[in-house]
Amino acid sequence: MKEIGFFSIRARDASARLGTLETKSGVLELPAFFPVYNPNKPIIPAEEILSDFKIKQIITNSYIIYRNPDLRSMVLDRGLHATLGFDGIIMTDSGAYQLYKYGEVEVSNIDIVRFQHQIGSDIGSIIDVPMAAHISYQQAKEGVKKTIENARELDKIKNELEGTIWLGTVQGARFQDLLARCAREISSLCFGYFGAGSLKVALERYEYNVQVEYLLRVRELLPAGKPLHFWGIGHPSTFAFFVALGADSFDSAAYALFAEDGRYMTIEGTMYLEDLEEFPCNCPECIKYNPEEVRSLTKDKKVRFLARHNLYVCVGEIRKIREAIRGGWLWELVQMRARSHPSLLEALKFALKHFKSELEKREPFSKKSGIFYSGEETMDRPEVSRAKKMLRRVTEARRFFSTHLYGQVPIGLRYTYPFGQTHVPGEAEPKEEPSDEELLSHLLQYQFGPEARDAFESPRIVRSKRTGMPRQVFDGEERVGMIRHYDGMFVPSLEGARKLIRVLPYPKCRVVVKKEFVEAVARGTSVFTHFVDDLDPEIRPYQEIIAVDGSDSVLAVGKTILAGPEVREFKRHPFMRIRHHVLPRKAEN
Percentage helix, strand, coil, to 5, in the chain? Predict the structure, then answer.
């Protein structure tokens, strides 16, 4: 069994991670949406959230429970899960929102921390100081100081709090020096989950650019090896966007608050029940009634209907996002969702224009899906920007006009990701065909660098008899690799890897394995982060690389899960999954 707090990534797209977090109440699937559950006002009972919606996680406010003597006594006696009737994962807020709203809370940080642990919270939080976007520097500085003090208080008693995962939120408003200071402190302490606090007022005014800049600054300042929660992001139209920028989870009470206000959520926006003639939805609630029938219900039943519908919309969007990450089409989903509000589209353009390098570091090197043009912002997508930059590696090449996204592209890359998998309306397929020599030369230069064109002495390509597409690659009679069918990338064999590293400068396209783990990797064990002695810092997720020992001898070839800069930020996490290895696996006893 994995230890509590272990965070693992299974798939990724954009800056999003499809992963899991081990908690004492089960495995949290990320990205995740935590519905806010108010035990004093349970519009949808907690057990229904689990049974009807299959949502395995909720968040509740420990301060509200603490302030209610009867409820407090009950949870201390029975535990939080039994009291709420929720056999899943429960995150607890500390009362930080009440601090923002009312200016004070009637409990100390250390007392509410201990209380959360006593009642069995799976993921607890300190009292940080939430901030509005436009507060003064001095106010933000004081809030950061208090947040850090409370974080240090938690760290001093961490041995009393085993089993609870603690979430530390980075504060600092829009002031980069304060954000950096707070992030350094939070990341050095005992937190197993990080938080980015939504900047109040700005979010309510749809000032998404402010939220984008804050989230991306925080994401860059914090180590990648722990999940990141984005507080208070409530409308499902924004979920895909903020996941693509690096948020792993959200919480919101909007599904219930909107219901109380008579508002009906859709992905494209929100409508009032009073204005609807029919429901544009096929969720289990909407197929039962028409709007006129719902309007005739009592107020409580009307609110319950809207809350359940709104929650179905939220959870459905999170599931679609997870599927988009698996399939590699998250940016396509983001671009569709951005059309739901002008401010959201503006924020997407802002993020892609001003944070290219930050987003590119986490962007997969290759994908199984194509790139579908859906607006001018496609030009600035991180995989498009990277591809244009990498084209400079290829010299002395006959070129063809790919699309207006890339311009003139070496002919040998016609079938290589992303050029051969990009679809732009009105732009026809090129008629030019590469020779086998052009295909291999241009591909090797593009994928591994200009030196790679000299790796093989007498290369030749064997094409598929069924499709005629290039498949196996030989150097003389020796197989040195293959050209993958879905992305046109070169996948080296062991001999191909040996020939590549003879010409590639150290440590280009390599991960160097520590001496004590050399045999394990040579026998096919995945390269874990703690195996790594050195590596190419330019390595990106889903890239074909070569594992070597300290003398630069090939141990294995395979595909990465993490980016090079992330290796030091994960503990005992797979970095590279092995495809071919030089020694046989040990026989099992």
Answer: 40, 20, 35
Select from 579, 570, 557 the least CA-distant residue to 530.
Answer: 570
For the beta carbon of residue 97, count every other beta carbon within 10 angstroms. Answer: 20
Q: Which residues pair with 195 in a beta bridge?
A: 169, 229
CA distance 420 to 414: 5
CATH topology of domain 365-490: 3.90.1020
Domains in the chain: boundaries: 7-252, 365-490, 506-581
Which parts of the chain register pLDDT below 50? 100, 102, 202
Domain 7-252 has CATH 3.90.1150.10: no
Q: Does 275 qualify as catalytic in the annotation? A: no
Angle, CA 544 vertex, CA 542 and CA 550 arms, to 5°: 120
In sequence order, what are the residues at sequence separation of 6 or more whose Cβ sits closer than 8 angstroms to the Cβ of residue 455? 444, 448, 496, 499, 500, 502, 503, 504
- C-alpha to C-alpha distances, 202 to 113, 135, 190, nearest whole angstrom: 29, 11, 30
pLDDT in tens, 57-108: 999 999 999 999 999 999 999 999 999 999 999 999 987 666 545 456 778 9
pTM of the entire predicted model? 0.95
Angle between helices 299-327 and 330-338 (to 10 degrees): 140
Q: Tell me: domain 506-581, CATH 2.30.130.10, correct?
A: yes
Q: Describe the strand order of the beta sheet including 532-535 as a list of residue ranges.
A: 527-528, 574-581, 554-560, 544-548, 510-513, 532-535
**Catalytic residue of the set 52, 70, 93, 487:** 93
